[in-house]
Amino acid sequence: MSVLSITDARIWFGSYEALKGISVSVEQGQLVTLLGPSGCGKTTLLKAIAGFIALDAGAITIDGADMTGVPPERRNTAMCFQSYALFPHLSVYENIAFGLRQKGTAKAELESRVRASAAQVSLEAQLQKLPSQLSGGQQQRVALARALAVRPGVILFDEPLSNLDARLRDQVRFEIRQLQKAHGFTAVYVTHDQAEALAMSDLVVVMNAGAIEQAGTPHDVYYRPVNRFVADFVGTANIMPVQVIGEDPTRDVYRVNSPLGELEIQSNEAPISDRIYAMWRPEDATAADHRDGTPNVFEFNVKAQSFLGNLTDLVVSPTGSDVSYRIQILGQTEIADGTRKSFHIDSRKVRFLKERVQ
Amino acid sequence: MNSRRTVHAYLLLIPGLGLILAFTGVVIGMAVSQSFGFLNFSGESAFSTRFWQSATADPQLWRAFWYSARISVISAVLAVALAYPLALWLRKPFPGSTLIGAVLKAPLLVHGLVAAFLFINFISFQGFLNLALVKLGIIARPMRLQNDPYGIGVVFLQVWKQMPFALLILTGAVQAIGEDILNAARDLGAAGLSRFRKIIVPLTLRSLQAALILIFIGAAGDFSFQVVAGPTSINSMAQFMLRAQTSGMDGWNVAAVVAVLLMLLSLFGAMILAGATQFFARVGRA
């Protein structure tokens, strides 16, 4: 049974529909990420799960119980806020103990759970300090320990890493995932950072304008995006309108006309239309020495490049076209700007999107 | 910071802080000196405790002292008790909240003496309240409401006048509490009263104490409300000080004794109120 089930959730702010019939199920021990740009409704949905915003239609159940009309203080959830929301007048110990005191936990049990939660996030030595005496990363860990201590059915994370610097963000992200796996807690995690979503999640729910565009594993949303929005939002994508012109059913290969020229796409899923969008990732193209008749080898003009350390990001255009594509080459490349270079695009890496060309 | 820079820092404070300390010091120093016979306006200046002896032997002084203490404590507590829920209500803006806030703060623009006369007009024997009650058949004859013996009118006027001041201080403090902090408390199981006791009160304690102390000190030294609307059978400390000053040859010196006692009342009253709020906040948080 799902720990958390959201069915056809709708919220209006005046005439603006912030959530347009969201349905999601979260299983025990899953970490589900709500991923989307600012204003897509992901935080609104999280606040609705916590009970801070009431649904105008639809239902939320936690552990099978309908949450309609149940105030936040009586829901089996705990939230980690973007701002940490630590109580500034209470010590780290008292912050972690707050939820347990509210539940009337016995003194000995409270003491052991506070110390255990602090140990889980390596904060045993900081228990007597005030939040203002801690670094941003430590404060985020206190917020996590505070949530863990009450052992809620679902932990809700509202962009918890957005106030941390890049290095610390990677570290805390890893720690949260490790803790989640070790203790098996169920979590809903809101972020607009696709790398965070891909790295942490069991299930990624990509949202846009109050609706779900796609829900799937990180692998699915990255390699099998359903439309241009998901393809473009999750990672970098080269999206092209294509016209299906032929098919070899024995090899699951489709021949298409694309802005690059004739292209082969190997797909075990048939395109939903003859005129459809297809996409490939920048890392799916490899340098090819000659255009020797091999399918999917195209010549590009290298317009610009940026060295990113572990790879080089090229902006290229097909000969005779102004349309730009992105290609990423591992390591540093000797290719100079303004030169022509052939690249091979693996037919297995090109995907049909489920979006027709209008 | 080396000692030279420290000295510079203190020197820079002199024009502002020095002036305040000088004026305060002069006033307090004069009052204390006169209460002990120095800086005497009506005779030879020499140390004497007789003014203290004669003033403190007067039972009317102690009646005035405890009356002022009682009125100011009740006024301060009531004003803050009324302002607190209003500040919480106005914490988040809603349609009309600016207008409501402005109306609630309007008494700040009305002079205390004007307010006292309006109030007397309202509750007097032939005033609007009595006439309305008689016309509505609730009472048969007008009641005597003005200058009541318990000082209820003075407390009413103090609260009416000082509540907006407390509201001003508390609104800022309450608004400074982040929404996320209250939501976090709620999310961890704290219902309304629990959030108030454990989060709102501790985080607004300093402002609460400031409001209580400022209102208390203002009410303890009240003169105009007491003269217009106060009981006729008892004086406030300020009223008693004026009466002492005009009472005879030693008037200035006895009035100085009353002034020093009034300052001590303000000082210790403020300390007791601050301590009491700290204590109740700690008890509430537990």
What do these coordinates show?
The complex is a heterodimer of chains A (358) and B (286). Chain A has eight helices and 20 strands. Chain A folds into two domains: 226 residues, P-loop containing nucleotide triphosphate hydrolases (Rossmann fold); 120 residues, OB fold (Dihydrolipoamide Acetyltransferase, E2P) (Beta Barrel), CATH 2.40.50. The model of chain A has no long low-confidence stretch (mean pLDDT 90). Chain A is elongated, with a radius of gyration of 24 Å. Chain A is α+β, with helices and mostly antiparallel strands and 358 residues long. In chain A, a hairpin with a 2-residue loop joins strand 1 and strand 2. Helix content of chain A is 24%, strand content 37%. In chain A, helix 2 packs parallel to helix 4, helix 3 crosses helix 4 and helix 4 packs parallel to helix 5. Chain B has 286 residues and is mainly α. The mean pLDDT of chain B is 91. Chain B starts with a helix and ends with a helix. Chain B is 74% helix and 0% strand. Chain B has a domain of 190 residues: MetI-like (MetI-like fold).
Give the % helix of chain A.
10-25%
**Strand adjacency order, main sheet of chain A:** 6-7-8-3-9-10
Radius of gyration of chain B: 23 Å
- Unreliable spans of chain B are none
Total number of domains of chain A = 2
Overall mean pLDDT of chain B:
91
Number of helices of chain A: 8
The major sheet of chain B is characterized as:
none
- Low-confidence segments of chain A, given as residue ranges, are none
CATH class category label of the largest domain in chain A: Alpha Beta
Q: What fraction of residues of chain B sit in β-strands?
A: under 5%
Sheet bearing the most strands of chain A, described?
6 strands, mixed
Helix tally of chain B equals: 12
Rg of chain A (C-alpha, Å): 24 Å
First-residue to last-residue Cα separation of chain A: 41 Å
State the CATH superfamily name of the largest domain in chain A.
Answer: P-loop containing nucleotide triphosphate hydrolases
Oligomer: heterodimer
Fraction in beta strands of chain A: 35-45%
Overall shape of chain B: it is flat
